[in-house]
């Protein structure tokens, strides 16, 4: 497996181009079905079509489903969020505390990533 790159590989470019063409082809078929009368479509041999009700109902159902999906996502995030008085909102098992005395960082370099203890944050913020 090579290095990950944001530029498309030839396979991804081909899939994207086919999806691009397929989208415009499907949109064109939708507009033909929605705009032309059924008699004209029957005269050119297209006889198996959904009801005209779905010309407007389909996109409306998709829009409403999208709104409900967004609302469900927000509600689900509210249900899995910890309450403000939980100790897990302050720290967890993945916290990395580094002692200031053991850090030997060369001059001009970036120190390693770590969590700041809550007592140190309170000292800086409230100067007690």
Number of strands: 0
Measured as a percent range, the helix fraction is 40-55%
- What are the segments in which pLDDT stays under 50 over at least 5 consecutive residues? none
Q: Main β-sheet: number of strands, strand sense, barrel status?
A: none
Between the first and last Cα atoms, what is the distance in angstroms? 54 Å
Characterize the overall form: elongated
What is the rounded Rg? 29 Å
Taken in chain order, the helices and strands follow as HHHH
What would the average pLDDT be, to the nearest integer?
Answer: 88
Backbone structural class: mainly alpha
Strand content: under 5%
Number of helices: 4
Care to describe what's here?
This protein is an all-alpha fold. The chain has a domain at 12-49. Helices cover 54% and strands 0% of the residues. It is built from four helices and no strands. The chain has helices spanning 10-35, 38-43, 53-80, 118-126. The longest helix has 28 residues, at 53-80. It is elongated, with a radius of gyration of 29 Å. The chain starts with 9 loop residues before the first helix and ends with a helix. The chain crosses the membrane at residues 12-33, 53-76. Keywords: GPI-anchor biosynthesis, Membrane, Transferase, Transmembrane, Transmembrane helix. One of its GO terms (cellular component) is membrane.
Labels describing this entry:
single chain; 128 residues; mainly alpha; 54% helix; elongated; PIG-P; transmembrane
Layout of secondary structure:
Elements: H1 10-35, H2 38-43, H3 53-80, H4 118-126
Protein name: Phosphatidylinositol N-acetylglucosaminyltransferase subunit P
InterPro entries: GPI_Anchor_Biosynth, PIG-P, PIG-P_GPI19
Main location: membrane
């Amino acid at each position: 497996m090579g290095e990950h790159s944001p530029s498309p590989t030839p396979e991804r470019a081909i899939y994207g181009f086919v999806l691009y063409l397929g989208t415009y082809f499907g949109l064109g078929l939708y507009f033909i079905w929605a705009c032309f009368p059924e008699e004209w479509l029957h005269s050119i041999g297209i006889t198996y079509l959904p009801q005209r009700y779905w010309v407007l109902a389909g996109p409306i159902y998709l829009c409403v489903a999208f709104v409900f999906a967004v609302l469900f996502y927000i509600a689900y995030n509210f249900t899995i969020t910890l309450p403000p008085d939980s100790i897990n909102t302050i720290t967890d098992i993945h916290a990395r505390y580094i002692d200031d005395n053991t850090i030997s960082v060369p001059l001009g370099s970036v120190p390693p990533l770590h969590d700041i203890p809550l007592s140190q944050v309170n000292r800086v913020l409230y100067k007690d």
